[in-house]
Amino acid sequence: DVKVTQSSRYLVKRTGEKVFLECVQDMDHENMFWYRQDPGLGLRLIYFSYDVKMKEKGDIPEGYSVSREKKERFSLILESASTNQTSMYLCASSGQVDGYEQYFGPGTRLTVT
Amino acid sequence: GNSVTQMEGPVTLSEEAFLTINCTYTATGYPSLFWYVQYPGEGLQLLLKATKADDKGSNKGFEATYRKETTSFHLEKGSVQVSDSAVYFCALRKSGGYQKVTFGTGTKLQVIP
Q1: What is the rounded CA–CA span in Å between residue A33 and residue A56?
Q2: How many CA atoms lie within 13 Å of B2's alpha carbon, on the beta-carbon side?
Q3: Cystine design at A19: which of A42, A78, A100, B81 (Cβ 3.0–4.6 Å)?
Q4: Which residue in chain A has the smallest CA separation from B49?
Q5: Nearest 10 degrees: Cα torsion B90, A4, B38, B68
Q6: Residue A17 pLDDT > 90, yes or no?
Q7: Burial class (CB in 10 A: 0-12, 13-18, 19+), B1
Q8: Which residues does chain B have within 8 Å of residue A102's beta carbon, measured at their own beta carbons?
Q9: How confident is the model at residue B100 (pLDDT cuts 50, 70, 90)?
Q10: Given an 8 Å threshold on Cβ–Cβ distance, is B44 in contact with A101?
């Protein structure tokens, strides 16, 4: 079974803090993705990575950065958290071996106060 | 650009009722189409998919047919159960090895006994 794990299910941070969200997949997938999920807006792509150290902006990259130093790990960084970044964050991975089907982690609900 | 439009929710049905969730899309070429399901407190998981026109995807009693002439991919189930209560997302991925997926806003389904 493909496993995508995220470092925290729930996180509470203060405005201005630097926040790291970690995602790990165990299926040797080339692609990894970070989305945020908000009511009425569905899933919006923040960043994705198609290889180690490679990244591409998604639809809403402002206020976020990412890091992929190893194939299995993809980190989302909020340099200076703001209240409008309170959301559910979902990580996903996909690879040629699975026909590029996206597999999702359980999500991290981040609250910025 | 690509877009997916699905019916607004929430949808409330009695157990054993017939379910239809409408989904239409805008994309060039021949995208692959998906339905994902998100159970409470979990990430998304793939429910079914179709990769070319007139394909029918099916899983767990759910079905959807890829209709290129109407650019639609409506989700149906003949008899819903309480355990089907979840949020359903329609999504597309462009053809040609393009790995990003565009999601609809999601439709919440509540099935009451």
Answers
A1: 10
A2: 21
A3: A78
A4: A101
A5: 10
A6: yes
A7: exposed
A8: 44, 46, 101
A9: confident
A10: no
